[in-house]
From TrEMBL:
GO MF annotation terms: LPPG:FO 2-phospho-L-lactate transferase activity
GO biological process: regulation of cell shape
Gene Ontology cellular-component terms listed: cytoplasm
UniProt cross-references to NCBIfam families, sorted A to Z: CofD_related (TIGR01826)
Protein's UniProt name: Putative gluconeogenesis factor
Similarity comment text for this entry: Belongs to the gluconeogenesis factor family.
Length: 330
């Protein structure tokens, strides 16, 4: 059931991956004025194949956000999210939703326009914008001086990442933000980063120069939802403070106001390694390090255990976000 207020707070959520839809779904239920800014750097799986085949922005993260903010019946959602089996020849591993977004992108000659049209069709409560209207390629420079190109490749290197940057996939030039992205950030009461992969879901958006600058200049409360688990090939052995330090170093400024940190321990041997093979260890806490980065720290039990996986409890996280946004603005 939605909670209605006289004034909906304008909350911009930036990221990608599987964590973003969880938070968006919770915000939708609280009747916020939501804008999701979604990464378009994915080059693996169904998204990667479609991106190569018809020169479109990768649809996977956009598809999951559409579903999270839609009020369509569960049966429609199940159809939209259905993934073909591996043995289904050229349809193998594609989701119906990805194929629909691909078709609409080709019809409208724009993934941006396709998402706006699908948002109306699916009764989306909020705004969904790809971070850029062109596909972008993620690059990483490692601490040993080597480089890697491609979101799906970087983590497989299992090397310490010094920094990441993005280029326009088509011509290698700097990436421009999509329409309405910058104005949404400027008008926001709160900007939420994550949860999601630090180097491959969150930073690709912030590495779009104008987008990152807009977040740094914003007067809104900037909240980072720290991951619960470290990730193979990205944040191995990272503390929560190290996550924040990477974000600050990339943008050259201490721009995060508040960090949400889960303190509930995960039961030993709970995680199913066959399904969640990218998870390593629970993120270590360094509260002094977070304060040294200029952040207010909110630590609590934000943990949800489900189906052998570790997730953020969306109700608890969203309750905290609303306490912050109303305390800061009203």
């Amino acid at each position: 059931m939605k909670t209605y207020r006289i004034r909906k707070p304008k909350i911009v959520v930036i990221g990608g991956g599987t964590g973003l839809p969880v938070i968006l779904h919770g915000l939708r239920d609280q009747s916020a004025d939501i804008t999701a800014i979604v990464t378009v750097a994915d080059d693996g799986g169904s998204s990667g194949l479609l991106r190569q085949s018809i020169n479109m922005s990768p649809p996977g993260d956009l598809r999951n956000v559409l579903v999270a903010l839609s009020d369509m019946p569960q049966m429609y959602e199940d159809i939209f999210q259905y993934r073909f089996k591996e043995e289904d020849n050229f349809l193998a591993n594609h989701t119906i939703g990805n194929l629909i977004i691909a078709a609409m992108s080709e019809m409208k000659n724009s993934t941006y326009e396709a998402i706006q049209l699908l948002s109306k069709f699916m009764h989306v409560d909020g705004h969904i914008y790809p971070a850029s209207e062109q596909s972008m390629t993620l690059h990483a420079k490692f601490s040993d001086g080597s480089n890697a190109t491609g979101e799906s490749v970087i983590a497989k290197e299992r090397k310490k990442i010094d920094y990441v940057y993005v280029t326009n996939t088509a011509d290698g030039k700097p990436v421009k933000p999509a329409r309405k992205v910058i104005s949404s950030i400027r008008e926001a009461d709160m900007i939420v980063l994550g949860p999601g992969s630090l180097f491959t879901s969150i930073l690709p958006n912030l590495m779009i120069k104008e987008l990152g600058e807009a977040v740094c200049k914003s007067e809104a409360e900037v909240v980072y939802i720290c991951n619960i688990m470290t990730q193979k090939g990205e944040t191995e052995h990272f503390s929560d403070a190290e996550h924040v330090k990477v974000l600050h170093n990339h943008l050259g400024k201490q721009f995060i106001d508040t960090v949400l940190v889960n303190t509930e321990p995960i039961p030993e041997d709970y995680i199913d390694p066959d399904v969640y093979d990218e998870y390593l260890l629970q993120v270590k806490h360094d509260f002094k390090g977070l304060r040294d980065e200029g952040c207010r720290v909110i630590s609590a039990d934000f943990l949800e255990l489900k189906d052998g996986g570790v997730f953020h409890d969306r109700a608890k996280v969203v309750d905290e976000l609303f306490r912050l946004v109303f305390g800061a603005k009203y």
